[in-house]
Amino acid sequence: FAQTMAGDSNDGFNYAVLFLRVIVGITFAAHGYFKFFKGGKIAGTARWFDSMGMKPNGTVHAYLAASTEIGSGVLMALGLLTPLAGAGFVGLMVVAAWTVNKSGGFFTMNHGWE
Q1: Which of 14, 18, 82, 107 has the maximal Cβ count within 10 Å?
Q2: Can you give the chain as a three-state secondary structure string?
Q3: Is residue 72 packed enough to be buried (19+ CB in 10 Å), middle (13-18) or exposed (0-12)?
Q4: pTM for this entry
Q5: Do 104 and 113 form a contact (C-beta atoms < 8 A)?
Q6: What is the pLDDT of residues 23-65, one digit of tens each?
């Protein structure tokens, strides 16, 4: 009972994880939002994906990327279905590393996938 009144010894860790989860989730959701509604929108994102040779076409990948970023970001920020949200993040980052950064090699200083 005394420990409950004083707080859990893991409170600092739990708050740090909460903060990190919310920030990462909001960041990913905002990135997807911008693909839909700002800048070059879906058409611009699709052109960029097409320029990298993504198949079947850039439009499909633009919608998938933006939707996954928003959906996974919101789920992560809210703490709902976090394994699914995390899997969405991993999928996005694997595709990004493979399509955008693979030619740079391992190290990030060469725009690699590290």
Answers
A1: 82
A2: CHHHHHCCCCHHHHHHHHHHHHHHHHHHHHHHHHHHHCCCHHHHHHHHHHHCCCCCCHHHHHHHHHHHHHHHHHHHHHCCCHHHHHHHHHHHHHHHHHHHHHHHCCCHHHCCCC
A3: buried
A4: 0.80
A5: yes
A6: 999 999 999 999 999 988 999 999 999 998 888 899 999 999 9
